[in-house]
Design a protein that fits this description.
mainly alpha, 71% helix, globular
Amino acid sequence: MSGLRAAVSFLTPFGGATVPTPEALAWFPAVGAAMGGLLGLLWWGAEHLWPAPVAAAIVVLADLAITGLLHVDGLVDSADGLLPHLARERRLAVMREPSVGAFGIATGGAVLLARFAALAAIGPSVLLPVGIWCGSRAVMAVAPSCIPYARADEGGLATSFLSESARAPAIAAALSGAAGLLAPIMLWRVLGGAISALCALLSGALVLWFARRRVGGFTGDVLGAAGVIFETTALVVAAARW
């Protein structure tokens, strides 16, 4: 169970600080599904007490809390580094700086607004966030095996995910993540769920492709950004009038 504890510690502020291990990758989808289930239950309960917009705001805030703002921080840092016209080395340096620029503020604000609006428009569901949050963590787990690490020459938080021993956990994460994404989301809505899952996968892949073009691969911030964009895209598509 050391892999599970490492996954919980890496993806949430709970479990104590630990160095991420390759074994943790296999547990990413399960941890994501558990987080989605907690948010889904909160969403269902909140809509019985408050109007839909208030319930949506509570879920958005709860997600920020249970992730420790880790992934939103990755989104903001990635936006500041990947979107402006900068040299590769400067992009990586900007992504490590603690300050936040205009690109990060605008991207973070737009994403949080889109998540809030989508949740306010969708009827509360436990299945939907279980599938979406499971899928987003699967993308984070599989990406290190698919594209290069942009900081390979200098090291970084995601270095431990690059060993040969990470291959099997990444495959396990891909298989469990696919099942954990598709089964709940299609039980929620067959057509709408399938399209939401497909669009989410494409958006996450687009973030990773863009990072490879801009900095030569992924970083820990890029993994967080890919997960947040995955979730946001799925929620926005799911909010369509299916």
